[in-house]
Fold these 2 entries.
Entry 1:
Amino acid sequence: MRRNDQSTIRLLLSAAMLFLTVHTAHALGSSVSAGDSDLIVRQVPITVPLLQGVSSGPVHRTDIRLNAAAGGRRLSVVDLSLGDDAGAARLARVELWMGDSATVDKARLIGSVDRPAKRVSFSPNVDLKPGTTHCWVVLKPSEAAATGDRVTFSLERMQFHLVRDGGTGRRAENFKYPDTQRALFVGTAVRRAGDDGVHTYRIPGIVETDKGTLLAVYDIRYLNTRDLPGHVDVGLNRSTDGGRSWSPMRVIMDMGAPHENNGVGDPTILFDPATKRIIVAALWSKGNRSIAGSKPGLSPDTTGQFVLAHSDDDGLTWSPTYTITPQVKEPRWHLFFQGPGNGIAMQDGRLVFPAQYWDEQRMPYSTIIWSDDHGASWKGRLLGPKSNTTESQVVETTPGTLMLNMRDNRGKFRSVSTTTDMGKTWNTHPTSYSALPDPVCMGSLIKAKVRVKGVLRDVLFFSNPNTSAGRHHITIQASLDLGETWQPVHKLLVDERECFGYSSLVTVGTDRIGILYEGIRDLYFVTYPVDSIIK
């Protein structure tokens, strides 16, 4: 995380109880409107996962605008469809809320149905006031629902009656919405603010081992949302069932007392298929040795430390934390540390972590470190391809070619460079600073061998807040030509709400992609079929 994130976080926290009223386009369109000048009804689908253990917010909003001169109207019927019996069984409750405020937190509950059938009908019988009234649908997953399960939803009909002199007229106005079904996916909160007495969980990284185990790492920010320096450790959760359930949190990196000023964080994680070793990299700030306070040198007393810990038993136990700073940092640089997110193993067995350094003038550059002996030693001190870039992710596109996808402090887009000589020289990629919008945030990039229309092939997947300003609309994109192009059709909106914005992608077998991403102080995990991303 970078210094200019802190103002963003303060703004997000102040808005944490409000739901965004800005929505992205879906297959059925960003909204569906009907009616005349007296009564206009606008349907707005809202894309969020159905999260276990936390409130996901509404999945649908209806804006009802009544002309003051048109006479009264009563909302009589709201009909919903949940697809089939299997989808309905994944829900514990369906709720209908109404209010004249633009945010659901100020609305009132009109009706609810527990253990719903595949068709749900509400009879609100609410008299509408002139102006705009908002109606929200909230779906809550059942305990039997699991991460990756699908629920099909559509709002099929709304019925209104004319109201005169306190009575209800017989003539009904029916607004029908055929062919508006869409899929919603169940996810889980891996970490929630307040779990284990912790204020905030941030900075996700995730990897799948050869046993199919998912290992999620992150910052444990005990006291507040702030970056290092501070009371921060690296935590880990394991899942052995594809993310459906997670082990209790364990601390795998803790640099000891004084905890309030000896933190370690911003983790990135790597799995070595040759040795089965899992390696986690992080930044250790002894005292004020993060971005603002780190100085030239190699000692922990003067400069932030690039530290590692490893596991040789599928993430069950972990080594003590150790520094590789003397191996990889140029002493004249102010700071040198990792990604965060994911590292990779190349086809020839070399291991690579994305990294960043802050030079003599405190100008940041994205770069890499690498090992040709499975992590016994590391090579660094490599000049980065572009100034004013920080958090990055790396993939091997073709044998020996690395692609570095970088957060660029100039804003608006990601920057991309490639190297064929392990970072000695770099070439600007044709998609750099043009193809992938970015609001100056961390993003995730992985290369995955997945099944596309029945055939296994290598695909690049990228996730970030898909916008040039503001952190919202967490999106997964796919490139079928290893990053040469990013076609808009191969894109899936995950969560359109305001969030802290960081994410980390992982394969779950050959037919699903998982994403571990930040809400506001929480970490969520959802898996999606590959064919929901690649159309």
Entry 2:
Amino acid sequence: MFSLRATTSAMTKQIILVPFLALFIHSAGAAELPEAAKQIIFEQIQEDIFFEDEGLVRSVKSMDDLHFKQRDEFKIRISGDSYSRWDQKKIHYDCEATILTRGAIQTKNDVSTLCRMTGENWPHDSNRDRSQRNQLFVKLKPGGILPGSAKIISSKELFGQMVLVKATDAAALARDLKDSAAVDYVQLNSFHGKQRLPEVEKAPLAFESFSEASPFNDPQVSKIWSFLDDKGFGVSVNKTYSVLGSQAREDVIVAVVDTGVDYRHEDLRSIMWVNPGEIPGNGKDDDGNGYIDDVHGINTLMRDSNGVASGNPMASHSHGTHVSGTIAAAQNNRIGIAGIASRAKIMAIRTVPDDADETDVDIVESFLYAAKHGARIINCSFGKKTNEGGMVVAETINHIAANYGTLVVAAAGNDSNPFVRWDIDTDPKYPASFDSEGLLVIAATSSSGGLASFSNVGRKSVDVAAPGVNIFSTIPNDSYGPMSGTSMATPTTVGVLAEVLARFPSLTPVELKKIAIESVTPVSSFKGLMVSGGRVNLYQALQTAGRYR
């Protein structure tokens, strides 16, 4: 759930890019796309590459020269050249459109596009920080009052001195307010950058049962290699329950801020968090928290005419459901698999679109909702490579750790390859690269014991590693399958920490983070690539937690 890194151009003159050579698709002879589908794809490309900063504009003006042919059922590749009217510099585009649903492309939700640009004036890709045009974060100085402005439509206090402002023109308002004596800083509401989410893998390893005695009666649990002990390069889940049994003292609420969760799944419905103050389906805000029928969580991607998030976090993609099963799928119910944590309750928060282009406003709202409603851990399997100096998400993480006892666990990212490791100390990822005692960052390992080839690293920014390749878990519609990514390593770690909290509920976020780092199984090749230099281990984490309490 991560986008390519971008840099900022120093140009300040207005330019408009127009097609010069026809953008074309490398066709394999597939049928011509309908005109309506072409228009939707073009609009998505236009949105991808739009850029505006201090009078400079980059965009594609017309679709007249575009020629579309679908390469296969799900992929369309697009490339072409455009020129700047200002200086006649050439910019080259390489775009890929991914069809997200089977059948016709009818809305922008059916397709995701990703464009990369090269050229004399644009040595960067399309995923430069983009922002929502009518929302602005304003942090006031102590005792400061939001200055009046005709550009302000409404405002909402978030926490501390942080205010979210709805404006007629957020960028213009930001320029007006940034030098105000009452204002500490302003920040636009940034998108995180589009890209394709990890998908269920069709046929990885033959998923025969891994050889180790299991304490669970769930029929497909033996397909989860991460349950093995150190010799199998897992996190010792089987060993923990076989030796220590189930000693959890209380439920632990875990918020999965993701693409939503299939809360009707056969292996998840019994472990879903239920809002005790809400009466399901009556169309009312029974508990007065501002949300209607938020029984299992909220959906910030669906809002009413007043901008209030929906109370239905049903999954739109398999990602969030897969994450949830790894953490907490029902144990010993003779169905499907088992989660790592025995008494975790999943709070579902749909904030990540199917194209992974979440906004800072939605992330902040999700984190605050989770913390205020009792989540002890937030699973954050998403991130971006541009931040433009924004600190609102970081301040939110600090706030919920200090005031609600909530730990955010975030993925390190999947930008490495077999030849080069992406170091998020020097090439940051957000939120993973934020410096916060309330944030734990996770790299991914494979079943052979080493780091996954795609996993990012960071001596200072990455804390621990966990299994994240071919992880078998729940997917929507009562199904199961494997997925890979630091997105999968993160819930593996969250499941471990949720079980630790269930047995030692008085632990603070800072203590929980220390326990995760101190209890790893050391791996010599990880030294210098992360803080702990090792892989998380449930059995050892519980032994370490016992020394804290």
